[in-house]
Amino acid sequence: MSKYDVIVLGSGPGGYVTAIRASQLGLKTAIVEKESLGGVCLNWGCIPTKALLKSAQVFDYLKHADSYGLIVKDFDKDFGKVVERSRGVAEGMSKGVQFLLKKNKIDVINGFGKIKPGKKVDVGGKEYSADHIIIATGARSRELPNLKQDGKKVIGYREAMSLKTQPKSMIVVGSGAIGVEFAHFYNSMGTEVTIVEFLPNLVPLEDEDVSKQFERSFKKAGIKVMTNSSVEKLDTSGKLVKATVKTAKGEETLEAEVVLSAVGIITNIENIGLEDVGIVTDKGKVMVNDWYQTNIPGYYAIGDITPGPALAHVASAEGITCVEKIAGVHVEPIDYGNIPGCTYASPEIASVGMTEKQAKEAGYELKVGKFPFSASGKASASGEKDGFVKVIFDAKYGEWLGCHMIGAGVTDMIAEAVLGRKLETTGHEVLKTIHPHPTMSEAVMEAVADAYGEVIHL
Fold first, then answer.
1. pLDDT at 45
2. Secondary structure (3-state) at 24
3. Are the C-beta atoms of residues 165 and 82 closer than 8 Å to each other?
4. 8 has which bridge partners?
5. What is the H or E stretch that residue 121 is in?
6. Is 404 labeled as catalytic in the residue annotation?
7. Active site residue: 64, 428, 437, 457, which one?
8. Does residue 304 have a known ligand-binding role?
9. I need a surface site. Which of 72, 262, 304, 330 has the fewest CB within 10 A?
10. pLDDT averaged over consecutive 10-residue blocks of the chain (458 residues)?
11. 280 labeled part of a ligand binding site
12. 443 Cβ partners below 8 Å, 6+ apart?
């Protein structure tokens, strides 16, 4: 039996980052993966979707070349090659993970791992043991009883990312990040897209101002938006899928070539031995403490299978915290109130901290500022004037309670707010931090100035 200090189950951005950090700390480490290194994020999620969205952005630029004084008379798309490029990017990233694991002398064990009592892992009938076993098995697309996926007419994110031919029409059910990113991609490629959301707003977890702006942008792009609506049943017997949609005004029947179910995710915790070991779960999540220890000593869990936000960067941070604690490094628990969230549709969305509604409900007296990109020189020059930056401060002490952005490139800008909040900066300190001109990031400073009644460019 092979013996390790640490065995990690799953090689997604939680698992492989955890394994590498463990190795850096001098722990003999192995990682178990049943499919491709990098997990869903690198192979079927974060990375390949961004490759698809980049193709959509370039195609949009070609369609609007005249807006930039350019004449492009003849252009088209090759949908197959767009998908092929995306798969190539994913494959390259997976090979990169393979290189990193090899560089850090981590043993890769291929196969389906199942934990056993006595700090053991079974992979295809062969047993491995470790002082510490970290479970990072991630999640997959959730299936609802009335939205059963057949992989052809009713699909999940995997199929949406690798369709052989582009559908003429698509119904997207759910408007979280996965739903709106695919809605944007297919709409940009020329598919007729309808998006159905049960709640009153698209991207319902975002600040309400952001949701409203996002919905306006989607409608302007030609996407049909149905909020306060739900798909009750599907008929896949004909050439087109017939979807019965319940709306505030009654039932409506929609038809499309493909229905994409983007109604959330479900954790991969079945048949991995949790019950055999006696590890406690609740509502499909593994229960852990601040250091990601389960109720059974020597067994840990990180990432999507635990109660925190199901985000790649959260999984990585949890894994690093977990192994640093194991190695005796002094670490602080993760502040889950300062986790950035990003959505990569067009316009992009990025946010951290409380929404205005949440801050009011928490009893804060607020200073709220907003700066539209229509007043930004860089945004005007780029032809990307949709959107704004919104900041929320506690009026009494100046604490930066929340920051919400919608517009071009905001997913690359949100880190300023995350760092500022981590360092407990105040509105006045942000105001006195000189931002380069002309940049989109100036909008953060201008929004803060607006909150404090000092805005110059509005």
1. 81
2. helix
3. no
4. 31, 134
5. strand 120-123
6. no
7. 437
8. yes
9. 330
10. 92 96 97 89 85 95 95 94 94 93 96 97 96 96 88 92 94 95 96 97 96 96 96 93 94 96 93 96 96 98 96 96 97 97 96 97 97 96 96 95 97 97 95 96 97 94
11. no
12. 371, 373, 376, 379, 388, 389, 405, 407, 413
Amino acid letter, residue 107: D
Q: 123, 111 in Cβ contact below 8 A?
A: yes
Residue 417 and residue 444 in contact, taking contact as beta carbons nearer than 8 Å? yes
> Is 178 annotated in some ligand binding site?
yes
Known binding residue 348? Answer is no
* Strands 192-196, 169-173: pairing kind: parallel
CA–CA separation, 188 vs 217, rounded Å?
A: 13
> What secondary structure letter does DSSP report for 200?
S
> Which amino acid, residue 41?
C
222 three-state secondary structure = coil
Query: Token digits for 368?
Result: 């709220």
Quote the pLDDT of residue 279.
98
The CA distance from 217 to 209, in Å, is 12
20 marked ligand binding residue: no
Q: Which domains does the chain have, with CATH numbers?
A: 4-141+266-327 (3.50.50.60), 154-263 (3.50.50.60), 347-452 (3.30.390.30)
Closest CA to 189 of 81, 87, 46, 90: 81
Please enumerate, as own/partner, the contacts of 70-77 that have beta carbons within 8 Å and a separation of 24 or more.
Answer: 77/189, 77/190
Map residue 424 onto helix, strand or coil: coil
Q: First-to-last CA distance in the chain? A: 69
The vertex-330 CA angle with 329 and 334, nearest 5°, equals 110
How far apart, in whole angstroms, are the C-alpha atoms of residue 312 and residue 341?
10
For residue 39, say whether it is annotated as part of any ligand binding site.
no
How many other CB atoms sit within 10 Å of the CB of residue 329? Answer: 12
Strand-strand pairing, 154-155 and 139-141: unpaired
The one-letter code for the residue type at 209 is D
pLDDT of residue 143: 87
With CA atoms as reference, report the closest residue to 403 among 342, 454, 354.
354
Query: Do the annotations mark residue 113 as ligand-binding?
Result: yes
